[in-house]
TrEMBL record:
SMART domains: Semialdhyde_dh. It comes from Cystobacter fuscus (strain ATCC 25194 / DSM 2262 / NBRC 100088 / M29). Belongs to the aspartate-semialdehyde dehydrogenase family. It holds the Pfam family Semialdhyde_dhC. This is Aspartate-semialdehyde dehydrogenase. One of its GO terms (biological process) is amino acid biosynthetic process.
């Protein structure tokens, strides 16, 4: 890596931002190369960086001057303006929000899946990343597609509250404490109380549609990722906010184009470096959010099929939404972009 590369992390105090900072330290990015940025509310906070402490600065247009790489761990509304400012300053920009995922002119990149796009010619200096759920879906579906073909996927995603950032974590903490004390808490970050509850809505519903933005995003993002491979599985499902803090769980029903015994499907999944197969249910070994935290792989298990419908494969998966589903993708894509010839 170029030791003169300067990197800005925007949203550094958030759930994903903190993971980005930790990942950059693991990649031996020096404190001198790094600038931490956030909103005025978080400016002045200090984050540990190895044995050093870095102060978070308020983000502004001037913040991007001299930066070679800007990593946006910010909400979509903020990313739309910040991405323009950072590109205008000459930086490569990688955005983890949904702001640019639907824009055809902006590459949608999942490192390890279509990393070649990071070396291709494209307009602008901006790359978008898929959501954590789409990241898990693509990692699981690709080896199955290669081995058997994939026609259709039905998914129920059980999403931890850290998907809504620090505000989501605080709300679950406060609601849990209130309910245990016999008080009825109000919902602010989520559409309904999430403490001791399940909420079948993540993000707003689309206008005149029964689908939420989160759910529609999976369909769109998977289509963009798989279209160059000439085979686009139909992806649809339900996003459920659950009262856990970190990690997402996915219940998947996959219709294969060619029926496959479970042993063959398991072997295909085991062959992917993006996955870790935990599938010994008799020994109580299966994916759980508590196991996937800080693991760069997607965990897969509980594989089952039905003799009456051998083309359907059922499984359960988990992904670290802040790590593999966001921060690792940001850093891996960003460092590869920054290594492009000038």
């Amino acid at each position: 890596m170029n030791e003169n590369l300067r990197i800005a992390v925007v949203g550094a105090t958030g759930v994903v931002g903190r993971e980005v900072v930790s990942t950059l330290f693991d990649r031996e990015v020096t404190a001198e190369q790094l600038t931490l940025l956030a909103s005025e509310r978080s400016a002045g906070e200090e984050l540990d960086y190895g044995e050093e402490t870095l102060e978070v600065e308020k983000v502004s247009a001037e913040s991007f001057r001299g930066m070679g790489l800007v990593l946006l761990a910010t909400p979509a509304e903020a990313s739309r303006s910040l991405a323009h400012l950072a590109q205008s300053a000459g930086a490569w920009v990688v955005d983890v929000s949904s702001a640019f995922r639907a824009e055809g002119a902006v590459p949608l990149v999942l490192p390890g899946f279509n990393s070649e796009l990071l070396e291709a010619n494209f307009k602008g200096r901006l790359v978008a990343l898929p959501s954590a759920v789409t990241t898990a879906l693509a990692c699981i579906l690709e080896p199955l597609r290669q081995a058997f073909g994939v026609a259709q996927v039905q998914v129920t995603a059980m999403m931890g509250v850290s998907s809504a950032g620090n505000a989501g974590v605080r709300e679950l903490e406060q609601q849990t404490a209130a309910l245990l004390s016999g008080r009825d808490p109000e919902a602010h970050t989520f559409p309904q109380r999430v403490g001791f509850n399940l909420v079948p809505q993540v993000l707003p519903f689309l206008a005149n549609s029964p689908w939420t933005e989160e759910e529609a995003g999976w369909t769109l993002e998977c289509a963009r990722l798989f279209a160059p491979r000439g085979e686009v599985p139909v992806v649809a499902g339900t996003a459920v906010q659950v009262p856990t803090f970190h990690g997402h769980g996915l219940s998947l029903h996959v219709r294969l184009k060619k029926p496959a015994p479970v042993d063959q499907a398991r072997a295909a999944l085991k062959g992917s470096p993006a996955l870790k197969v935990l599938d010994s249910p008799g020994e109580k070994v299966y994916p759980m959010p508590s196991l996937v935290t800080a693991d760069p792989t997607v965990h897969v298990g509980r594989l089952r099929s039905f003799p009456q419908s051998p083309e359907w494969l059922t499984l359960f998966a988990t992904v670290d939404n802040a790590g593999r589903g966001a921060a690792l993708n940001l850093v891996e894509a960003g460092l590869r972009l920054a290594a492009r010839p000038s």
